[in-house]
Design a protein that fits this description.
The chain is α+β, with helices and mostly antiparallel strands and about 230 residues long. The protein contains four helices and six strands, in the order αααββββββα.
Length: about 230
């Protein structure tokens, strides 16, 4: 190979090395730009993370204001609880009052009807007292009617008031007269003229009775014998 040829070959080699170096520099610059672009968002997110983790220093808190707010909330809660308890108690009292009024109205209506029926029962019993033959078919029929009639009234709550032999009670007995008696102690009922009845705690009709005034005195006994 001639000297000129060698010289040209060396020049070609140098040109290729220059191209490689230029290409390498361009690749480095591209990689640098890519790294900068990748790092840019991270630099923007950093302040958000720092803001999320930010806490108010304890020395900047108004502790007294927080305590006052806590006390106010507690007082408001207690007031609401008291209002709820009072409303519940008022509603319970209202419900009981309505139930009592309804029951009283029911008893009052029943009492008016039963009070009007009592004279009928009295007349039927009076008729039986004047029957000459209790075995008579008519008398037995009346007895059956009286029994059924009183059973119906008793199912409605009607109760007879005890009288004979009982101590005189002005709340359920009506004294029509007094009578001396050696057999019955004073202030005891000797005889019942008309039976009384009650409907629960309500006295529909007091019993009309004769009350004993005690034994006959010795002076009166002597005058009677003379």
């Amino acid at each position: 190979m001639s000297a000129g040829s060698k010289g040209r070959k060396i020049n070609i080699t140098d040109d290729e090395d220059v191209k490689d170096e230029a290409h390498a520099e361009e690749s480095s610059e591209s990689e640098a730009r890519a790294d900068d672009a990748a790092e840019a968002p991270q630099a923007e997110e950093t302040p958000a993370e720092e803001t999320a983790d930010y806490k108010v220093p304890i020395e900047e808190l108004d502790v007294e204001a927080l305590l006052r707010e806590r006390d106010e909330l507690a007082a408001e809660q207690e007031e609401l609880r008291d209002q709820l308890l009072r409303a519940r108690a008022e509603f319970d009292n209202f419900r009981k009052r309505i139930a009592r009024d309804s029951e009283r109205m029911r008893k009052t209506a029943a009492a008016d009807i039963i009070r009007d029926l009592l004279p009928i029962a009295d007349n039927l019993e009076l008729a039986l007292q004047h029957v000459s033959d209790p075995q008579d078919s008519l008398a037995q029929g009346v007895q059956m009617v009286v029994k059924q009639f009183m059973e119906v009234l008793q199912r409605a709550g009607l109760e007879p008031i005890a009288a004979e032999g009982e101590s005189f009670d002005p709340t359920v007995h009506e004294a029509v007269m007094q009578q001396e008696s050696d057999d019955v102690a004073a202030n005891k009922v000797v005889k019942e003229f008309q039976r009384g009845y009650r409907l629960g705690d309500l006295v529909l009709r007091p019993s009309k009775v004769v009350v004993s005034s005690g034994p006959v005195s010795a002076g009166q006994t002597g005058e009677t014998q003379e």
